[in-house]
Amino acid sequence: MTQKNNKPVVVHMDVRKLKDCPDTNLPSFSKAKLEKLIEEAVVDAYGEEEQVGGFFTMMEEHLALPFSTSILGVDVVVEKVDMTCSRQIVAICRRDKVRQGVGILDLPLPTPAPAGAEWIAAYRHWRRGF
């Protein structure tokens, strides 16, 4: 809760309508390219859960793994993408013997981005409610 002018303000966030996302170094793609990828990912998918599953499948098939990146100044290796029990797509990151899942939309990508990063960009575009 945030206060402004001594009145409480409650902020509600709908993840499908987010406009400001963290800088993740995603390459730019045209709206037409993103919409074509979205169409390919969600074909034959009924409902949001199946559509997220479609994006997960495309990332699993097309994202070049492993790759190195930096999270909060710490170098990690992204070993795979996975889906949580709550149907969130995460990148499984490793540093030495420690592994942790990071939301795919929050994952900072290296420059240049790995092959297949367009699927992350398409997923972000879809989550924003293109």
How would you describe this protein?
The chain is of the alpha+beta class and 130 residues long. It has one domain. Helix content is 30%, strand content 26%. The strands form 2 sheets. The protein has a 4-stranded antiparallel β-sheet. A hairpin with a 5-residue loop joins strand 4 (74-83) and strand 5. Helix 1 packs across helix 2 (47-62) and helix 1 crosses helix 3. It is globular, with a radius of gyration of 16 Å. Residues 1-21 have low confidence and may be disordered.
Described by strand count, sense and barrel closure, the largest sheet is:
4 strands, antiparallel
Residue share in β-strands: 25-35%
Number of helices: 3
Number of individual domains: 1
Average pLDDT value? 85
Radius of gyration: 16 Å
The low-confidence runs, each spanning 5 or more residues with pLDDT under 50, are 1-21
Which sequence of strands runs across the widest sheet?
A: 3-4-5-6
Tell how many strands the DSSP assignment holds.
Answer: 6
Shape: globular
Gap from first CA to last CA: 28 Å
